Amino acid sequence: MSLLERIYRWFEFPHRFHALRHILSRPGVKILDVGCGNHSPSLTKRYYPRCHYAGVDRERWNRNEDDDAVMDEFYAIDLEKPHELIRIPKDGYDVIFCSHVLEHISQPQQVLERLVTKLRAGGVIYVEVPSSRSLRLPRARDGWLGIRGCLNFYDDPTHKALVSVHDIVTILSNAGLEIHHLDRRFLWRRVILLPFYALAGLLLRGYVPASVVWDLLGFADVVVAMRPTAHGLDPVRSPRYLSWARQAARIRGIIC
What we know:
Elements: H1 3-12, H2 15-19, H3 21-24, E1 30-34, H4 40-47, E2 52-57, H5 65-70, E3 73-76, E4 93-99, H6 108-115, E5 119-130, E6 147-148, H7 165-174, E7 178-184, H8 188-192, H9 194-205, E8 208-209, H10 214-217, E9 220-226, H11 239-251
Parallel strand pairs: 1-2, 1-4, 2-3, 4-5, 6-8
Antiparallel strand pairs: 5-9, 7-9
């Protein structure tokens, strides 16, 4: 891999991968990606080619033949019908991604309750949703200071309602999961190097995608939770990541 390719991959590396990178790097890790548009299958396999990738979506949105080719499994499921999730095997996955999905559906609680049953012992679920802060951000659907996209919650007409992270924590905790991280979505690189991300957007698209400034403005919140093993300890989880994540959660009164 060339130096330029390494730099590009470092810039492109998504938040959800960064949060769970120590688990995702395990050979054969089984991933269930709920809402697998935006070329997520190809992106995931690019960074973790040895993973087993299963996608979930109701239609083919922003996904091409290359994405279809790299998926190991695909479930055509309409999340407006949560009972359809019964088709996905229980206790089958090490990682579940549910990023910017719950705000698009009418029954987020029922969907989330069913998704956690798909986790293996020691498995981790990553949930990302727009925060209440997004209600106060400028509207950018038609452009704002060169930024275009979903910057305010209501920029996306398919958004149904905000999903509170505290409600998410309650659902996951009631299902027996341990909360290991609760905070706004944030990576320092996305703030410090914001001019470079913005310039790349301008050169490639002619505008700055709204998601480029999400970290700076606090558009989204993240919850990470783990299904405990029988002994209450997962020997493969990363102490480095989960130690500070657990501490952050304790500070917010989520973990006793």
